[in-house]
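In this section we turn from sequence analysis to structure. A common task in structural bioinformatics is to predict how a protein folds when a small molecule is present, because the ligand can shape the pocket around it. The inputs are simple: the amino acid sequence and a SMILES string for the ligand, here nicotinamide-adenine-dinucleotide. Study the lines below before reading on.
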Amino acid sequence: MTRTTVRIAMNGVTGRMGYHQHLVRSLLALREQGGLDLGDGTVIWPEPVLVGRSEHKLRTLAARHGLDRWSTDLDAVLADDGIDIYFDAQVTAAREEAVQKAIAAGKHLYVEKPTATGPAGALKLARLAQEAGVKHGVVQDKLFLPGLRKLRRLVEGGFFGRVLSVRGEFGYWVFEGDWQQAQRPSWNYRAEDSGGIAADMFPHWEYVLHELFGPVRTVQAHLTTHIPRRWDESGTPYEATADDAAYGIFELAGGIVAQINSSWAVRVHRDELVEFQVDGTEGSAVAGLRRCRIQHRAGTPRPVWNPDLPVTEPFREQWQEVPDNAAFDNGFKAQWELFLRHVVRDEPWRWDLTAGARGVQLAELGLRSSQEGRRLDVPEPGR
Ligand SMILES: NC(=O)c1ccc[n+]([C@@H]2O[C@H](COP(=O)([O-])OP(=O)(O)OC[C@H]3O[C@@H](n4cnc5c(N)ncnc54)[C@H](O)[C@@H]3O)[C@@H](O)[C@H]2O)c1
């Protein structure tokens, strides 16, 4: 077995995403399984170098996981020729500057979404990376979740006939932070820190819709801040200046209508934290993070509206579970594996910084649509 070591500078690894999803469940999980086996006698061995602002936190993390390299000096890490990839899961507002430095240092890039705080910055990163000839990728984890992979299988298998509409419901209650601690970072609720649910979730909806159903052509959104006062990590009250709910209608190429509610001020009466219902002429599906249920045209009941009678049909029972038919790994890890193969073997890859810029653009147009109270066209980014 030949071992190809890939050294990855991981910035923002003390944060929720950087630590749990990218370090522990992706790269350390890969090391635990002996590396990424390419099937031809080669194994890719990821070697994380932890980067961040707090020496104490980095040292503790490195010790906990038996890693020997960490640094609070990003410039020094980027100047090291031995580093192959720069990975960024910092707060969104810190990303653009760090990624630009990494491009200048000639590193391949893999970054969390949103790739920048606005479309101009996101496109600039895509252009600079292209010109520098480095490989670049953006996290689009939802595509690799079991529920959405089953949904893709249905689309590709022609299950739906003509797709008519997509209804997405995402959200849960995020505690205000006074009597119960908030379960998300406080910067998410401050516009001045690049927070907001549209900035956070519209990039996800852009690639989910684009990849499964077609490019988004128009957006009409209503953003609001339902909870105007929250308490931060230290228990100090602050004004929540960013949107905590975004109600969006997206028209896709071919006339498909997608309507997605995103909210951190909703209580869950669903089976999963996100669910998409897709209705087509031949059948419908409801997909969550893990499960996917279908109802074929031939099995569709014939309800008759009569409010004077109790419900006559067990509607939820009339759906059929889509089987796994495969072992699904963690979605973040699955995408990391493809990116590492792209870097080492030049295998195909489409989730790049240009794709990331589309998501940032949609978030920005959603915000503008809400401010101006009108529907906006969604151009190809840069046009
Ligand atoms: N792919 C997904 O599903 C997903 C989910 C949540 C968040 N994210 C993205 O991941 C990124 C990190 O989000 P998170 O929820 O892990 O945030 P977090 O607050 O838990 O972590 C932020 C990280 O950035 C670092 N940081 C650097 N500069 C900072 C600064 N000036 N102020 C505060 N922290 C700073 C922190 O030390 C920490 O390591 C965001 O860009 C977010 O949009 C992606």
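Residues 353-372 form the longest helix (20 residues). As an exercise, try to locate the residues that line the nicotinamide-adenine-dinucleotide site and compare them with your own expectations.
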